[in-house]
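User: For a benchmark we're assembling, each entry needs the component sequences followed by a predicted structure for the full assembly. Here are entry 17's components. Please fill in the structure.
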Amino acid sequence: MSSEAKPVLELQNISKSYGSVQALTDVSFKAYAGEVIGLVGDNGAGKSTLIKVISGAHPQDEGRLIVDGQERHWKSPHDAMNAGIETLYQESGLAPDLTIGSNIYLGREIERKGLLGKLGFLNQKAMEAGAIKHLENVGITVPATKRTVSELSGGQRQAVAIGRAVAWAKHVIILDEPTNHLGARQSQEVLNVIKAAREQGLCVLFISHTLPHVLEVTDRIIVLRLGEVVKDAPTSDFTVESLLGTITGLTV
Amino acid sequence: MSTQEGLQGEVMPSFMGGVPKPSSILKNQRFVLFILLVALVVFFSLKNSQFFAVAEFQSLLIDFSALILIAIAETFVITTGGIDLAVGTTGALAGVVAAHMMQPMVTSHNNQALILLFGTLVAMLVGAIVGAVAALLITVFNLVPFVATLVTYSAGAGLALVFSGGAPVGFNPEASTWSTTGIWIFSWPVMIVIGLVAILGLVLHLTRYGRYNFAIGSNQFAARVAGINVRRHVSSVYVLSGVLAGLTGMFLYIRAGSGSPIAGVTNSANLEAIAAVVIGGVSLVGGVGRLSGVILGAAILTVVSDGLIFINVPPTWIQVVIAGLIALAAVIQTLRRGQRRTT
Ligand SMILES: Nc1ncnc2c1ncn2[C@@H]1O[C@H](COP(=O)(O)OP(=O)(O)OP(=O)(O)O)[C@@H](O)[C@H]1O
Ligand SMILES: [Mg+2]
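Assistant: Structure for entry 17:
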């Protein structure tokens, strides 16, 4: 990444606490289009909290969030979505009782034309068809988008969730432990989707505890420890051992 | 390119795999309910041939109409993962207040349509206020829906008694003639209720509002991060529930020709509404349900309670039979959920 390019996402001195728990302290970094950034750290290091700030799920207490050159204050996740930031949360972001198609379009429903549309009637057919297209664009084929998500396996759900995020993201896509609970093969597919997203010019924030995955797919790694950034360096600077050492704080 | 191959290869076969379709199970359940409904009608008709008559169907429809709107109110609430214990008592309160407000007009005017329209608006407003109180307790003070609506239930029942002094309010015998005139077995108020049921069914299953209802009940977090204003939606659902309860109160006023403070309590309408929803196959944890199931549930409850009276079964037993129906429906629901988990 050339340092002259404008960062698509910039965090300046972000801090956040939950009551007496200081989850984030003075976190700053820049992220560029077409870059995959690994966000690693021990349990409770603050990774999920950080991405919740970026995605508008929780506001920060202090610090600035700059997207595409503009300082932004999210009132809700919807604001971040409108600004082109899509997030795959560690908790499931899918509604299991709705169909795959309805989930892809959740919060972005297509309404029918004319008066019916003004009355809030939905064009379910268009959404089911659009969902297939959106998912295929990122290499996920679903023969039946009319199935409910509850009928899918964990890996399939994850594929749908990631597909949705990549389909709608304009600038940044955030993946919080997307390979969790997945088998080796399905994990590899998730990594491939991440690479595809990079090729589309998206900036990807990839959170994972599986260090070989992080080393394989990222361009840069940011290490969080107890809510603070302790290292921000190109991936080529790390090995599994040195990365583990940085995370636990036993080396550096 | 390799990504295309990979996910296709992995996802497709298992997508096509032999998972049972809940939708077909649901359809099945509604089919079973329909058969049960027909069987009940046949049973009571065989027991007493006068059951199968225009007059009886007319009164069945009236009783059904008194139940279906609050059952639908409950459906909207329960599919979001909540519950409204107050629909019956809110209806009673709304009926009493509306009766009280209409009484001066009843004695001075004689345009019944206008009087009843005014009363309907009052009843809807009272219902909306009670619903708004529940919504406030839930979305602002973070009470669980069970407790919040227990508050509005008690307050509504109490206020209805205070407001009326414990006796029926107002006397408008002309109003009750509205519930005996109409077309064939459909009286005017019944036709209005049926029209409302159709509209509410469309709203629940075909519009954005209904979609958000199910999304919130299915996974509130997912709904929130998809940009749905969960707090606003949940609030609106309790207000809607109150309005529908208010309309039911007005319906009961028209049927009786006066507002009864105990209409909702003695008939245990709160519980009957929830029973109709459970029998109709709506998941009590939210996210799943069809209005057609609830309509069948309410119809079955109506036929059972009226039919048992018709063949002279003591009312105390009717409660027991309804309890059995609820238990059966709940057990089926639990079994179905268990089945889904293991797949
Ligand atoms: N909603 C919350 N309320 C209170 N404390 C919280 C909340 N969410 C997180 N925390 C606390 O904030 C700190 C950071 O948590 P966070 O979930 O961001 O960690 P993480 O790096 O994502 O961990 P993991 O790898 O286990 O997912 C922890 O101490 C956690 O207990
Ligand atoms: Mg986390």
